[in-house]
Write a structure and sequence with these properties.
Radius of gyration: 32 Å
Helix content: over 70%
Number of strands: 0
Shape: elongated
Distance between the termini: 73 Å
Number of helices: 4
């Protein structure tokens, strides 16, 4: 149980929860944009192509509300395409970042105090040997 509590604490404090909350909020806002795109732009265009019917939600096949389903499919396809392009752009940016990090020359670590002291001693010994 202690391990479970520690894992939950790490999850809640470690940023995953914040990332998830931001994702939900942005996703909700993005969903509204996609719904408006479908309802206000694509559905009327499709309606003009098919005739005077601009809203599929009233389209029925018996009691089946096929129009709502068509709207949902269109909305899903647009959302999936938008998310695909965003993820693809993020992956491309990550690849460029990793490539840039790999190409950057690595800095040599600064020598420890002991190495500095030994180097100084060695230099002083060389000076003493040259004087003799």
């Amino acid at each position: 149980m202690k391990k479970f509590i520690e894992e939950f604490k790490e999850f809640a404090v470690g940023g995953n929860l914040l990332d998830m909350a931001v994702g939900v909020i942005v996703g909700g806002a993005f969903s509204n944009i996609i719904n408006s795109l479908v309802t206000d732009i694509f559905t009327p265009i499709i309606g003009m192509l098919l005739g005077s019917q601009t809203d599929f939600s009233n389209l029925k096949l018996g009691q089946i509300m096929i129009g709502n389903f068509i709207n949902a499919v269109i909305s899903f396809l647009i959302t999936a395409f938008c998310l695909f392009t965003v993820v693809k752009a993020i992956n491309k940016a990550k690849e460029k970042l990793v490539k840039a990090e790999e190409e950057a020359p690595a800095e040599e670590p600064e020598p420890s105090d002991e190495v500095k002291l030994l180097t100084t001693i060695a230099e002083e010994l060389k000076k003493l040997n040259k004087k003799k």
